[in-house]
Amino acid sequence: MDSNSELESRIGEVLKAEKDNSIPRMTKRDYIIAAVIIVISLIGIIGGFFL
């Protein structure tokens, strides 16, 4: 049962990090940048298909 206690300690560390806000979250700006990159890449794929 050594792996079980290791898993519990890792879960505890993650919960502690979430409370401390040390895990970076995606902001609205990050989502906009990701959407722009996806749209540009899709245009490139579709454009390359028709060339």
Give short descriptive properties of this protein.
2 helices; 51 residues; mainly alpha
Quick structural overview:
The chain is an all-alpha fold and 51 residues long.
What does this protein structure show overall?
The protein has 51 residues and is an all-alpha fold. It has two helices and no strands. It is elongated, with a radius of gyration of 20 Å. The mean pLDDT is 84.
Let me know the average pLDDT: 84
Main sheet specs: none
What is the overall silhouette?
elongated
Helix/strand/pairing class, anyone?
mainly alpha
Provide the helix percentage: over 70%
List the secondary-structure elements in sequence, H or E: HH
Our count of helices gives 2
Strand element count: 0
Low-pLDDT sequence parts: none
SSE layout and pairing:
Elements (H helix, E strand, L loop, with lengths): L1 H19 L7 H23 L1
